[in-house]
Write a structure and sequence with these properties.
This protein is of the alpha+beta class. It has helices spanning about 15-20, 25-35, 75-85, 125-139; strands at about 45-55, 55-65, 95-100, 105-110, 120-125. A five-stranded mixed β-sheet has the order 1-2-3-4-5.
Length: about 140
């Protein structure tokens, strides 16, 4: 069994084994990379993201880490562009949910970032928020 290169815990998930880090450590490493990239810039946000699957449907989940940078809410276009640069432009077609620094999930219209960007979900559970975003997209 492979262990996390940062904390030493055993890795079970194939994606974690591929990265060499568990999900928490990987998120911290990515946040550190983003922070290094943005050093000296007040226009950057501290966030993490992942793809969530419910009933075979995918959604992008973004979480504001609230580490002192610009809020994801106020920097959403740049955040989505950074994620698209990392994992591909296809994310704009996925349902997108966002967890703010107060723990509330809302939706983001990825294809309409400049107009009517956010929509209210108001869930406190990721599963509920992703389900609502997927249902909204399939209507």
């Amino acid at each position: 069994m492979t262990n996390c290169a940062k904390c030493g815990r055993p890795l079970k998930d194939p994606r974690s084994v591929e990265h060499g880090y568990g999900p928490e450590c990987w998120s911290k490493i990515k946040a550190g990379i983003r922070k290094e990239r943005a050093e000296g810039s007040a226009n950057r946000s501290d966030y993490t993201y992942h793809i969530s699957k419910i009933n075979g449907q995918q959604a992008l989940v973004i979480e504001d880490l609230n580490l002192g940078g610009m809020s994801v809410t106020n920097n959403i276009e740049a955040v989505i562009a950074d994620i698209a640069h990392e994992i591909g432009e296809g994310i704009y077609k996925l349902p997108i949910v966002y967890k703010d620094s107060e723990g509330q999930y809302d939706g983001i219209n990825g294809e309409k970032l400049k107009f009517d960007t956010f929509y209210h979900i108001g869930a406190t559970s990721e599963k509920d928020a992703v389900t609502a975003a997927i249902e909204r997209r399939t209507r």
